[in-house]
Amino acid sequence: MLKKFTFLLFSVLLIATAFAQPANDNCGAATSVIIPVSGSTCVTGTLTGATDDGVFSNCETAGSQEVWFSYVT
User: Cα-atom radius of gyration of the chain, to the nearest Å?
Assistant: First the structure.
């Protein structure tokens, strides 16, 4: 019984992780990037779990994944 429960729990956690979306998946929830006085910064991110939000620009194709960042100069 314990093996079945462990397998079920693992399966649920794996599925939840597979469908999790990044916090900045939508434009309205863009991650703020603070630019230091030096004017140089490095930001890392991932597209794992990202979705297409339907906002298209000249350099994006329909159905592509994106995440959003914002900054103030």
Answer: 18
Q: Which two tokens stand for residue 5?
A: 């429960």
Contact between 66 and 31 (Cβ < 8 Å):
no
CB atoms within 10 A of CB 49: 14
Backbone φ and ψ for 70, nearest 5 degrees, come out as: -135, 155
pLDDT in tens, 3-44: 654 555 455 444 544 557 788 887 888 889 998 888 888 888
Q: Which residues contact 30 (CB under 8 A, 6 or more apart)?
A: 24, 68, 69, 70
* CA dihedral (35, 39, 44, 49) positive or negative: positive
> What is the CB neighbour count within 10 angstroms for residue 33?
12
Query: Considering the entire predicted model, what is its pTM?
Result: 0.58
